[in-house]
Amino acid sequence: MTGNSKTLFGVSLVGSGSATPAQRITNDQLAARVDTNDEWVKTRTGIKERRIIGEGDSLSKLCVEAAKAAMEMAGWGIDTVDMIVVATSTPDDLFGIAPKIQSQLGARNAVAFDLTAACSGFLFALVTGAQYLQNGTFRRAIVIGADQLSSWMDWDDRSSCVLFGDGAGAVAIELTSNDQNALIGFKMKSDGSRGECLSVPQKKEFVNLVGSFKNQIGRFSNIQMNGQEVYKFAVREVPLLLKDVLGKHGITAESLDWLLLHQANQRILNAVADRFSIPESKVLSNLKNYGNTSAGTIPIMLDEAVRDGRIQPGDLIASSGFGAGLSWGVALFRWHGKT
Ligand code: ACO
């Protein structure tokens, strides 16, 4: 699915926020549970520690905190928010957490809903939110990416448990004129035929209901991942899609200010950057502190780089989310901030 640059209105990214749990677990601490070590995890993934939701924290709470920070940066009054989209695959409630977040924010004029696309979630939600603005339906939206994969981990599987962490990030976007449009282009893709590489499937457990009728119990298994297949998928598909989107909009890799990829593995980030000869100094990475927070990685990284001054108003950013589904997407956008 490709973005159409001929929209009625433009969209501007005007605020960011993020929140991660207080509980911090290092590689060495994990090694007390599984047969791993700091050197292996650092070398193979770039991760040194991750944040895990513990007692007193919740994913919804992190989302509210991140959204508040994004709105504060944008300078918005809460009543002016029209829509809240929450990208998550691990909601506190299977029916969705966006309305709860809306109510905790006090955003009484906003419609709120969840969107599920695993590690592509934030990018897909950003594009989704932008559509409502670009066609003039809404003026202001908060897009949140957040996940709590720690709850779906087999903590005795060393090949997956070292990779993931929990966290939330948010971006405030608002309608602007078409000539100020910051979402320059995007493309999103899905391939369900490869979905088994990475999934959290429902368990096949049935109980007797009445007579000969049975019903399936609502329980899910832990994350099931073929790490090497996911790795190959990412380093093949992301560069192809990025090349496609850059080419379509006549943008060279050299003119990018930042490469903002889903933070899955430092080796994936390096491999994608190398294909385009993008120097390390332009590759945003905070994997070492948080691991893979799924839908949270892109907005958390964006917020960190905006707040520490690396990302400046007007900077051109190429972003890509990729993961379970399988799904992947690329978006080219400029950070406008609030002028
Ligand atoms: N500590 C020590 N040794 C380990 C660990 C560990 N934590 N995990 C695996 N090993 C061992 C393996 O058992 C294997 O040992 P063997 O050679 O004796 O059999 C050896 O290390 C090599 O294992 P590989 O699986 O070949 O290691 P690889 O270099 O492929 O790295 C990794 C594994 C890190 C999982 C990599 O494949 C990867 O990052 N894949 C992408 C995963 C990913 O990003 N998933 C999330 C996608 S986003 C989403 O949608 C949720």
Task: Explain what this protein looks like in three dimensions.
The chain is an alpha+beta fold and 339 residues long. The protein has a single domain (1-207, 216-339), classed as Thiolase/Chalcone synthase (Peroxisomal Thiolase, Chain A, domain 1, 3-Layer(aba) Sandwich), CATH 3.40.47. Helices cover 30% and strands 26% of the residues. The chain has ten helices and 15 strands. The protein has helices spanning 27-30, 38-45, 59-74, 98-105, 121-134, 158-161, 227-248, 266-275, 287-290, 297-307; strands at residues 10-19, 24-26, 49-51, 83-87, 111-115, 140-148, 166-176, 183-190, 198-199, 206-210, 213-216, 224-225, 258-261, 316-323, 327-334. The strands form five sheets. The chain has a five-stranded mixed sheet with strand order 1-7-6-4-5, sandwiched between helices. Strand 14 (316-323) and strand 15 (327-334) form a beta hairpin. Helix 3 packs across helix 4 (98-105) and helix 7 runs parallel beside helix 8. The longest helix has 22 residues, at 227-248. It is globular. The mean pLDDT is 96. The site of acetyl coenzyme *A has 23 residues, from helix 2, helix 6 and helix 7.
